[in-house]
Design brief:
The chain is of the alpha+beta class. The chain contains five helices and six strands; from the N terminus they run H-E-E-E-H-H-H-E-E-H-E.
């Protein structure tokens, strides 16, 4: 795991705090600051754990796209905490979350990031459908090999087969 500078850690923490402060001010809440960690690996940029009131961020993607993190990823994850505080358990990217993203954080309510994941993607395996080649992760490939799962193409709905 790459070492993050104290300055970058402080910048992210300050941004998380600013998002919480904004929610408290605009919604009349008294939310405390969540625990912030930088231990997330893989293709995810961030993750929220509302019942534990903590956030985890991917340090590699953070270093590669700091501005995107500050303006999109951090509000996205904090929004999960705020939605939980207001509504309890709801769909992760449901209407309550989308409304908060748009009206509280003035950020796009995208469910996934568009960061370059080539450096964190890991090994993939080629599969095929009518649409063309599809890459499956190691975990999904092994599930197919063990007969534990099948996967379908999102476009044509055909079952993916190994090439």
């Amino acid at each position: 795991m790459p070492s993050l500078s104290d300055t970058l850690i402080k910048t992210v923490t300050d941004r998380v705090h600013a998002c919480i402060d904004s929610a408290n001010l605009q919604l009349g809440l008294q939310l405390v600051y969540p625990q912030v960690g930088f231990t997330l690996r893989g293709r995810a940029a961030g993750t929220a754990h509302p019942t534990e009131w903590r956030l985890r961020f991917n340090p590699i993607l953070l270093q590669q796209a700091t501005d995107d993190f500050l303006h999109e990823v951090i509000p996205h994850e904090v929004c999960h905490l705020v939605a939980f505080a207001l509504h309890g358990r709801v769909k992760p990217h449901g209407p309550e979350w989308r409304d908060l993203m748009t009206n509280l954080f003035n950020a796009p309510a995208n469910t996934t990031h568009r960061l370059d994941i080539t450096t964190v993607q890991g090994k993939t395996f080629p599969y095929q459908c009518r649409c063309g080649p599809v890459a499956l992760t190691v975990r999904r490939h092994h599930k197919v090999q063990r007969g534990q799962a099948t996967y379908r193409c999102k476009q044509c709905q055909q079952i993916l087969i190994p090439i």
